[in-house]
Amino acid sequence: MAFLIFVLHLSGPDLKSPSEDARLDLADLEGIADDFKWTGHDAARIDVWARVSVYRDGKLVSVDRGAHSSVTAYFNETNEAKSAYNEGEPRDDWATYLAPWSAVLAHTGHYSPEDAEKTLRDILPDVLRFDRSQPAAYPNGRTLSDDVEDIRLQMVSNHEITGDGIGPHTDLLTEFPYLGHPHKK
């Protein structure tokens, strides 16, 4: 049995660093309860992350974070590193992952330390950012037709790999669950 636990994070001009945690009460996002009609009191940008957990040996264990697709697979090379990452929280990401993930980008995409840091600012901390004053398209939110796997391949290869050849979903439904059937190999 898996449980999806959502934690909302708010970013705004008062935050000093990308790793700073500013949790908010759901009451602060009145627009969500009102069919996503924003009240004018809400911040333009929100950061959202989620955790997928399962019960193992009577304990709830985090097995995945739900923000940026495929970062666990591309950036954490060992099972131990993947587990530690999945058990962590975004507020610790910058301090914990800047150095090892910069090394991955240097190896896979020949990034300089400066370019690696600039690139990692898009995915660290691992929260999905949405600025409602900007058009929705990954990495500003994520639409159902965004091909985030191609975007991640381009990131880790410094654009030497342009995609996986699968493409985004084109079989969207007009009602929940919105996505069509999974792609077959």
Count the DSSP helices. Answer: 6
Q: Which band does the percent of strand residues land in?
A: 15-25%
CA radius of gyration: 17 Å
The geometry reads as globular
Total tally of structural domains:
1
Share in helix = 25-40%
| Helix vs. strand class | alpha+beta
Largest sheet: 4 strands, antiparallel
Distance between the termini: 27 Å
Low-confidence stretches: 12-28
Strand tally: 4
Task: List the secondary-structure elements in sequence, H or E.
Answer: EHEEHHHHEH
Overall mean confidence score, pLDDT: 80
Gist of the model:
The protein has 6 helices and 4 strands, in the order βαββααααβα.
Characteristic key phrases:
alpha+beta; 4 strands; four-stranded antiparallel beta sheet; globular; 185 residues
Q: Explain this structure to me?
A:
- The chain is of the alpha+beta class and 185 residues long.
- It has one domain.
- It is built from six helices and four strands; from the N terminus they run E-H-E-E-H-H-H-H-E-H.
- It has helices at residues 30-33, 71-75, 79-87, 93-109, 113-120, 148-156, and strands at 2-10, 45-56, 59-65, 128-131.
- Strands 1, 2, 3 and 4 form a four-stranded antiparallel β-sheet that branches.
- It is globular.
- Residues 12-28 have low confidence and may be disordered.
Element layout with pairings:
Layout: E1 2-10, H1 30-33, E2 45-56, E3 59-65, H2 71-75, H3 79-87, H4 93-109, H5 113-120, E4 128-131, H6 148-156
Antiparallel strand pairs: 1-2, 2-3, 2-4
Helix pairs in contact: 4-5
